[in-house]
Design a protein that fits this description.
Elements lengths: L6 H14 L11 H40 L4 H10 L6 H10 L1 H11 L1
Length: 114
């Protein structure tokens, strides 16, 4: 019985890799073996950075809240402690948005927290 190479599936698999590496530099976009390695690396970075993005945004929100809190005579840690004591359930994303876009509302939250 003759050996079957399944060229249709092989070509489809290679085209999928080369389509995904469009825009890469040099041989990474058009030489299959190089492109495959580059795509594996890129997918690994994409996975890692989806996790790191969450950390980066949390750090940004905390920095914004701290800056706004200090402008109003307190610190981030004291503010968060007072919010917890007053049972005010606002997340950092919302607090950062208030601090940046609605400073009067942020001040009202500060006063409500005590």
């Amino acid at each position: 019985m003759p050996r079957s190479k399944n060229s249709v599936a092989s070509r489809k698999r290679r085209k999928k890799v080369l389509k995904a590496t469009r825009g890469f530099f040099g041989a990474r976009k058009n030489v299959y073996t190089v492109a495959k390695n580059a795509l594996d690396k890129a997918m690994g970075y994409a996975y890692d950075h989806r996790k790191l993005k969450k950390r980066a945004f949390r750090r940004l929100w905390i920095a914004r809240i701290n800056a706004a809190a200090r402008m109003n005579g307190t610190t981030y840690s004291k503010l968060v402690n007072n919010l917890n004591k007053a049972n005010i359930q606002l997340n950092r994303k919302t607090l950062a948005d208030l601090a940046l876009n609605h400073p009067e509302a942020f001040k009202a939250v500060l006063q409500a927290a005590g």
